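Renewal narrative, Specific Aim 1. Our central claim is that a sequence can be written position by position from structural information alone. The example that follows is taken directly from our test logs and has not been curated for this report. It begins with the structure tokens describing the chain, in the order in which they were read.
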């Protein structure tokens, strides 16, 4: 079954949020999902201890650089999707996870610094592809964007144009800045279980999540070349 990895050498770009939104939406659509938390802070394991984790999502903490290959391989044999949230720095664990991946997603926010750091992640994917001697599909994910393109900054628009000019695929639906996405890490559960009376623009967040996952699945089916 497909293995999707999240990586970025820069912290705070929404990598773990992207992993959780993807996992919970896939689960809401009926898929079985294994989340492998390879971030040293284990934010996904902490989310899993809160109320509301769907039964069709399991979360595994992974700290062993060599064991991660076996962990991914075992998981992909029994669930529909495996999602790996990698640590920021380059490491053997990052390379090993990429070797097992069908798609690598690199979150980017609207700043030149984010774009520069993301370039390192794209290079890591290409390096891993050379090691396994076949392409690894990858795509940029725009995160924490304003709700509409009209409100995007010039920097963000320039980043998107530069990615396109460089031939780097971009997931068409960005993940907007939504309080509901942040709220999952404090309240637990999923977008389906959050209370609309306590979370602003929850329906917009749900629609955003569904559209984003549709585009990620399309990227998998298209086998975007690296």
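The sequence written for that structure reads:
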């Amino acid at each position: 079954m497909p293995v999707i990895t999240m990586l970025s050498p820069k912290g705070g770009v929404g990598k773990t949020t992207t992993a959780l939104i993807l996992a919970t939406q896939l689960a809401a659509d009926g898929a079985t999902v294994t989340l492998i938390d390879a971030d040293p802070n284990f934010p996904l394991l902490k989310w899993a201890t809160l109320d509301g984790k769907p039964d069709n999502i399991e979360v595994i903490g992974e700290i062993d650089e060599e064991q991660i290959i076996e962990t991914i391989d075992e998981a992909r044999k029994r669930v529909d999707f495996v999602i790996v949230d990698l640590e920021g720095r380059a490491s053997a664990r990052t390379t090993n996870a990429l070797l097992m991946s069908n798609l690598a997603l690199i979150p980017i926010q609207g700043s030149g610094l984010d774009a520069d750091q993301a370039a390192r992640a794209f290079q890591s994917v290409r390096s891993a592809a050379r090691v396994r001697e076949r392409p690894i599909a990858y795509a940029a994910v725009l995160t924490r964007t304003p709700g509409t393109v009209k409100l995007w900054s010039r920097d963000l628009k320039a980043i998107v144009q530069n990615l396109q000019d460089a031939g780097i695929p971009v997931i068409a639906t960005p993940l907007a800045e939504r309080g509901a996405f942040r709220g999952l890490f404090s309240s637990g559960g999923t977008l389906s279980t959050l209370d609309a009376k306590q979370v602003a623009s929850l329906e917009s967040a749900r629609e955003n999540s569904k559209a984003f996952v549709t585009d990620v699945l399309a990227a998998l089916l298209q086998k975007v070349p690296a």
